Amino acid sequence: MTPVSAKLYTDDVSLLMVLIDTNPFFWNSVKSSLPISKFLTHVLAFLNAIVLLNQLNQVVVIATGYNSCDYIFDSSTSEGQTQRAEYLLQKLEEFVNKDESLCREDSVDGPGFSLLSGSLSMALCYIQRVFRSGPLHPHPRILCLHGSPDGPGQYVAIMNSIFSAQRSMVPIDSCVIGAQHSAFLQQASYITGGVYLKPQMLDGLFQYLSTVFATDLHSRGFLQLPKPAGVDFRASCFCHKNTIDMGYICSVCLSIFCKHQKKCSTCGSVFGQAPVQDSSTPDRKRKNPMDA
Amino acid sequence: MLMSTAERHHSLCGRLILPPPPPPPPPSSISSIFHRRRQAAASAEIEHFSVPNWSPESLAFAKEFKSIDQDMVKSDCLQVLRVVKMPQVKIVARNFMDMVASLPAMKLDKLYENSFICEAILRSLPPLAKKYVLQLLYIDGPVTAKWLEEWVLADGVSKHRVAVDRLIQLRVLTETVERKKEATYLFNPTFQRNLQKHIVHGGVLPREPMPSNIIARLPSLEDLDAYAVRQWELFLLHLISSSEAEKSTNISSSMMKVFQRGLLSQKDDKEPPKLTESGFQFLLMDTNAQLWYIVREYINNCEDLGVDTADLISFLLELSFHITGKAYNLNTLSDIQRSIIKDLADLGLVKLQQGRKESWFIPTKLATNLSISLADTSSRKQGFVVVETNFRMYAYSSSKLHCEILRLFARVEYQLPNLIVGAITKESLYKAFQNGITAEQIISFLQQNAHPRVAERTPSVPENVTDQIRLWEADLNRVEMTPAHLYDEFPSRDVFEAACDFAREYGGLLWENSKKMRLVVKAEIFTQMKEFLRRQKQ
């Protein structure tokens, strides 16, 4: 892994990885307030603006679906040069159809989470490839345009992606378009030094995007960008994927469990006999794993 | 009245070495736009005259002279002036946008009707200014200055000022100051409309490339790059010394003369022209900066040929939005543009090709990089020089031009097919310093062109080498200049000695010669000295 050295941050050439939530369950729920067509209009204008700002700027769009995720647009390829919007929309449609075909009836239950961990990993893989391309690479950052609720099942994978981004100094910006705050993205932006924002008025999404998220890493040193009022550091347990306030933690590998286990399912350490009362257990409450 | 003749003042020297001209004061927010525009125009001039240090004190002492002897003062003053007025120091301006900013308002507004210009201008702005443009893009009507300033952290205030001033210079924003002292900015409507259109519809190409079935043999991108570099180096070699170049370029000799103006000087026709100070500085700049220098000269010259500056600028910027390596039909150009493109081909910006029926031009990297290089981003070019701690220098290059450039400040020892080996020596550096190259220029050239292997390291050039280069330069600046006055023809030895003692007491005695009864004192104590001598006289 090649961490980005600070001396490369002298100019404003950026590589922006945009993760678009295409979860059909989410878009169905916000049909009235923000139809996806309107959302895409804003995002396309934003992408055009980023490419406009610098000839060397690069934009990559990854669609985060329900069952899969995929690269749908890369401005560095020859297809991305002209007719950006048409190309992107066509690829997006193909992706959504493919994503739908993977969907099995019985697997759908509840609100439906989108595969954020997958698209984050894909974005990081792409960035790693750019890092290795030579010393003169653009400065990467990730922007999550996310609406679906957090999928507790992806907790470990997402946290791992976040730490990987932190190590390679890639900020994760998050723009939450759903009704709920996203604890995952709050943590992601907090840990990687990105911006977390939940726009109040979705009609003016472009203005939010262009004012806050278009700021290149070089300029961020001089500007006051929105800071979250509070970050939800709650973790999910590894055994049942529930979001918990209080639980058991493996003293060897820091895995989190909601109930007492005889053996750690992650590292295999054997735990001693737990006391009968819950209150005396070495519980950890609302502690973020990154401090550990 | 004996003393008045004895008191002869020679201004030994107004300072021979002038400090760099003071930076222009930061424009206050209240100053009118007109003032700013004039400033922009001034900074766009290539030649920066170093302002003589004609401080209020020196004016005061000129007044003192007046009371003593009218005539003498006049001649002395002239002499002082003559000494003070130093030869102009030329700085090759690198920013092309200053030139655009200095265009008259009418022309500038007309330029913005072309959306490519808007795009190029936007890309040339400092990062913070770009962000402001984007932020204001969909806001109609004026916004207050405070609204923008609210975003800025304490560290970024100077950057913010630079960004906003740039936007105002380029007339992207117009500043109006209301009576309540609250400044407001209004976005240039044409500029705004063009960018909005661009953002909604995405980029459009200036003209359609020709279909590939008509064109028989299109050069590969590598070939095209090589062609551009070859053409550019040929031009540079030709520029420096016409004899060195094996092949002559098609650029007319009159045009070449224009480019050489300022870079070369020729005392008489017999001698070969010599590189001037700015000529050396020019050679050490990176390709994009050189290119813009030449383009600027070209533009300046074109006005004489009857081509409108604004048209030429817009054509050049438009050219940078073509796709490298694609062929474009020459028929789509106007007559003037066609004649321009021939010159550009000689510079390596485009390659001209002719088919059976049609002829076309293919933009090279140099052309498409034109608008990139406008921003002050670091040049993204692979270096070739390795400097070792023992002052040896290895340059992996086969270019004759590189060799010539290295020869400016280093001793080239031998040359292999792909490698130039040399050493940085005291003698070679002294030669460079005499030619007006500064140590900083040499160091920055070595750093900018560091071979990728050493560029990863910090520092890319060994510290002992950079320090030694600076030290050797400092060696040449050992003489210190002090403004002073010479006194001679004293009436008696007593008066002379008393004057010496007096000057010593004030710490202003610089030199004395008791045999000839002369002494030199610092200019600061001139008034006290005069008082003292007047008292002696009585």
UniProtKB/TrEMBL annotation, chain A:
InterPro entries tied to this protein: TFIIH_Tfb4/GTF2H3, vWFA_dom_sf
Entry keyword annotation includes Repeat: no
GO molecular function: zinc ion binding
Keyword list, A-Z: DNA damage, DNA repair, Metal-binding, Nucleus, Transcription, Transcription regulation, Zinc, Zinc-finger
The keyword Acyltransferase is assigned to this record: no
Protein localization: Nucleus
GO biological process: nucleotide-excision repair; regulation of DNA-templated transcription
GO CC annotation terms, alphabetical: transcription factor TFIIH core complex; transcription factor TFIIH holo complex
Cited Gene3D superfamilies: von Willebrand factor, type A domain
Quaternary structure, from the entry: Component of the 7-subunit TFIIH core complex composed of XPB, XPD, TFB1/GTF2H1, GTF2H2/P44, TFB4/GTF2H3, TFB2/GTF2H4 and TFB5/GTF2H5, which is active in NER. The core complex associates with the 3-subunit CDK-activating kinase (CAK) module composed of CYCH1/cyclin H1, CDKD and MAT1/At4g30820 to form the 10-subunit holoenzyme (holo-TFIIH) active in transcription.
Function statement: Component of the general transcription and DNA repair factor IIH (TFIIH) core complex, which is involved in general and transcription-coupled nucleotide excision repair (NER) of damaged DNA and, when complexed to CAK, in RNA transcription by RNA polymerase II. In NER, TFIIH acts by opening DNA around the lesion to allow the excision of the damaged oligonucleotide and its replacement by a new DNA fragment. In transcription, TFIIH has an essential role in transcription initiation.
The family this protein is said to belong to: Belongs to the TFB4 family.
Protein name listed in UniProt: General transcription and DNA repair factor IIH subunit TFB4
Automatic annotation (TrEMBL), chain B:
GO MF: ATPase activator activity; double-stranded DNA binding
Superkingdom of this protein's organism: Eukaryota
Subcellular localization, as worded in the UniProt entry: Nucleus
Family matches, as InterPro entries: Tfb2_C, TFIIH_p52/Tfb2
GO biological process: nucleotide-excision repair
Transcription factor Tfb2 C-terminal domain residues: 467-534
Key words of the record: DNA damage, DNA repair, Nucleus, Transcription, Transcription regulation
GO cellular component, one term: transcription factor TFIIH core complex
Major place of residence: nucleus
Role this protein plays: Component of the general transcription and DNA repair factor IIH (TFIIH) core complex which is involved in general and transcription-coupled nucleotide excision repair (NER) of damaged DNA.
Family: Belongs to the TFB2 family.
Alphabetized PANTHER family for the sequence: GENERAL TRANSCRIPTION FACTOR IIH SUBUNIT 4, TFIIH, POLYPEPTIDE 4
Protein name: RNA polymerase II transcription factor B subunit 2
Organism expressing this protein natively: Sesamum alatum
Organism lineage string: Eukaryota, Viridiplantae, Streptophyta, Embryophyta, Tracheophyta
